[in-house]
Amino acid sequence: MTFLGAPVHLVRAEGGFQGFWRWDRPSDFAYTPVMTALNPSITIDGVTLDLRVTRKRVKNINVRMVGNELRVSAPRWVSNHELDEAITELARRMIRRERARKINRADDALTLARRVAKRFSNKPEIVAARFSTQQRSRWGSYSTRTRTIQLNAALRQMPLWVLESVVAHELAHIDHPDHSPAFWELLRKVCPQTERARAFLEGVTWLGRSWERLPPVERSLLVDGGGGLDD
């Protein structure tokens, strides 16, 4: 989005498709009664949304997503620069939340997790399993309290043996909360592809973090298939 711009502090974003923001010094911002951009839109995670922004006598910025339209009501004293960052962050949360709903309509994650759980001698109970669009620093997690597995949504696009390895890794932590030799022995027993999957995920992580810095020629080489180690 290019018609606005600048930093903002998120207070909370909850309650379905509602986002709430608070500003500390309203006197710092000039009042702009109407937007001047024609046909404004915003693209987040490859999804383009039309924008409808209305200035009202409200205390917070409120955002709703209706189809492909993002409807925003904002206080009159909030600057366009501040509003830009608010809309961008809240739109990203909404798009990812909707994506999570879509990919979890089927019980694919639960079926997979329970199938992997059968490999363990103690047969850990799994009540729920879902793909998450909010996990950024971890590939997976398991809650012993709720018996729920959360999996990074990006795993859905990877080979099945990688996904199974992540599930097995989280379930192995039920018996071994650390990464002790006993943990790795158990994990390799129930998932012989463990080392291969770890190497795969390390490569994916490196590529994801480095992609924007790679020169165009090198990017093209990777997209075209990279290369094997054999002649």
SSE topology sketch:
Elements: E1 10-12, E2 20-21, E3 41-44, E4 47-56, E5 62-66, E6 69-75, H1 80-103, H2 108-117, E7 128-132, E8 140-143, E9 148-152, H3 160-172, H4 181-190, H5 194-210, H6 216-223
Parallel strand pairs: 4-6, 7-9
Antiparallel strand pairs: 1-2, 3-4, 5-6, 8-9
C-alpha Rg (nearest Å): 22 Å
Strand content: 15-25%
Strand order of the largest sheet: 3-4-6-5
Per CATH, the class of the largest domain reads Alpha Beta
Largest sheet: 4 strands, mixed
CATH architecture of the largest domain: 2-Layer Sandwich
How many runs of DSSP E, i.e. beta strands?
A: 9
Low-confidence runs of at least 5 consecutive residues: 1-38
Determine the N-to-C terminus distance.
46 Å
Mean pLDDT: 77
